[in-house]
Write a structure and sequence with these properties.
The chain is of the alpha+beta class. The chain folds into two domains: about 120 residues, Phosphorylase Kinase, domain 1 (2-Layer Sandwich); about 130 residues, ATP-grasp fold, B domain (D-amino Acid Aminotransferase, Chain A, domain 1), CATH 3.30.470. The chain has eight helices and 17 strands. Strand 15 and strand 16 form a beta hairpin.
């Protein structure tokens, strides 16, 4: 197994913040985003990492940014360490394959979620109310069914804990009508393009989450894109509507934590080697399928 990178320490480079998975630095007029091998479950970062996870997330994001760049500009400047500013080059060993030098955009206070299938919290919502995030849906849908049209269900970004689903009208109040409409259109266009590409490779994108920001006056795509951490990927050949589907993500980790009856409060328990290995293989597999 390759080395696990749980956190980075780039001396002499201005450290900005540590997210659940990413370490973010500032250098010159850019940001450096480093995807570590940290894994979180139920909004708690676990003490055990998943080897290679940060590289998989970075490479999948780069693949998708390239596939949709004609729809919307993105924040990537370079993912090649040899093109990074001089002070970063000595950290090539850590940064190679898991880092992106990006434009310093001002993130919007809204996350853009597109759902093509009814699953997860959307399915629970529908069972109770016949709606998903306040949007009325046809009666008689079954779990994991494809929706008639992709649904745009934005949420607010929470620094800690769960994001909160909001209506489109609320995004208009937060962002103004023009920006709210634009990110909705872009999110659905990106989802449709990605779904077509993935389906040709035998993968369903059930739902995904993306983020936008302003770089000067330009609205651009930022953060990660269509990774197993931000999306639900299902195998077309194993897809059977009417029940939960097996996802290419950290579900193995969640299932293990549920099985040991962890109370979902920090500190989180260590993961056994077998769970780590299976999860790493799952990330690796979806990377190979999508980018081959």
């Amino acid at each position: 197994m390759e080395n696990i990178v749980l956190e980075t320490n780039l001396e002499g480079v201005k450290f900005l913040r540590r997210g659940k998975v990413r370490d973010i630095y500032e250098i010159d007029d850019y940001l450096l985003i480093v995807a570590t091998d940290r894994v979180s479950a139920f909004d708690v970062v676990l003490p055990t990492g998943i080897p290679g996870k940060g590289k998989v997330l970075t490479q999948i994001s780069l693949f998708w940014f390239n596939k949709v760049k004609d729809i919307v500009e993105n924040h990537i400047i370079s993912a090649d360490v040899s093109e990074f500013p001089e002070p970063l080059k000595k950290y090539r060993g850590v940064l190679e394959g898991r880092s992106m030098l990006v434009k310093k955009a001002k993130p919007l206070a809204v996350e853009c979620i597109v759902r093509g299938y009814i699953t997860g919290s959307g399915w629970k919502d529908y069972q109770k109310t016949g709606m998903v995030c306040g949007i009325k849906l046809p009666e008689g849908l079954i779990e994991s069914q494809k929706l008639p049209e992709p649904l745009y269900t934005p949420s607010t970004k929470a620094e800690k804990g769960h994001d909160i689903n909001i209506s489109f009208d609320e995004t208009v109040k937060i962002l103004g009508e023009e920006t709210a409409r634009k990110i909705k259109e872009l999110s659905i266009a990106i989802y449709k393009r990605a779904s077509e590409i993935a389906e040709k490779k035998g993968i369903i994108i059930a739902d995904t989450k993306m983020e936008f920001g302003f770089y000067g006056d330009s609205l651009i795509l930022i953060d990660e894109l269509l990774t197993p951490d931000s999306s639900r990927f299902w195998s077309i050949k194993d897809y059977v509507p009417g029940k939960p589907q097996d996802s290419y993500d950290k579900q193995i980790v969640r299932d293990y934590l549920i099985s040991i009856k962890w109370d979902k409060k920090p500190p989180a328990p260590e993961l056994p080697e077998e769970i780590v290995k299976k999860t790493a293989e799952r990330y690796e597999e979806i990377f190979r399928i999508l980018t081959s």
